[in-house]
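User: Some background: our group keeps a shared notebook of sequences we're curious about, and every so often someone picks one and asks for a predicted structure to add to the entry. Today it's my turn. The entry only has the sequence so far, pasted here. Could you supply the structure so I can complete it?
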Amino acid sequence: MSTDTQAKLEGRGEREKSADTAAAQIKSGLQPFKDTERPATKSKEEIKAFSTDLFRLDGKTAIITGGSKGIGLDLARVFTQCGANVVITSRDETEIQTAAKEVQGLSNNEKSCVGIMADACSMEDIKKTIETTVSTYGGIDILVNNAGLMYSAPIEQLELDKCVELLSVDVVGPWLMCKMCLPYLKESKAPRIINISSINGLQGHKSQSAYSAAKHGIIGVTKALANELAQYNITVNAIAPGPIETDMFESNEESRKHGSLSKVPLKRVGHPRELAGAAVYLASQLSSYTTGTVVSVDGGMCCD
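Assistant: Of course. Here's the predicted structure to add to the notebook entry:
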């Protein structure tokens, strides 16, 4: 064997050793990859197993507000299937317990999901949610602020109390959840905050001045907290859904629904499950260098 060949083989061996070390580190959540430390997988099976592991949420505990139906329930389903323990909240006791039992059934583990009747903008209810989560699972790793409210009306017709209620649920509630969960998120090895905004947080639509203000507001909270909490290794991101098949969307007038769809290049309403990819990514170790961003899941509405 020539000296050059031997040197190349030795160099390759060192690179493979370094790559294996990097793979072990990212799988344990210690640090992200460097470009020179890609894992030296040797087969399709290894690649598939490695890629799948990176999206796993095993051992993580997530709180998802507004988790009894729609987007929140689908996120709870997917998070549980990815291995996370999930706490879901709703103001409706019957709905939240029904949803929790369904999610538990996906993992065949009654302890995989807990449903709590709670108002996402009530300090006492938030305390109860956090105390139950910590006593059940030992901590909090992921917070998904999904609970929301929408009123559509021209500004001259929208009453002040409706505007205040909307801002309270859609902005103040998530802000308060972040504030009160913070001590526990600081203790997590890979803490994540995901705020569910809306395409209305990136655009302005007629008869939705209060809703647009709220959804722009939660994006502002997201960006400010991403900057503020980076010192604790807490990433804070938002998802901006377009028209999604939920009770909130279906409650719109037919003319408004058709008007929304006319602006969607894909020409259809999205399903709540179609937000799951973005949410799982933002909750996983793969998003360790992603913070302060807004992921649009809108069928292309932001193309304009």
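Suggested note for the entry: The longest helix spans residues 160-185. Residues 140 and 184 are 6 Å apart (CA to CA).
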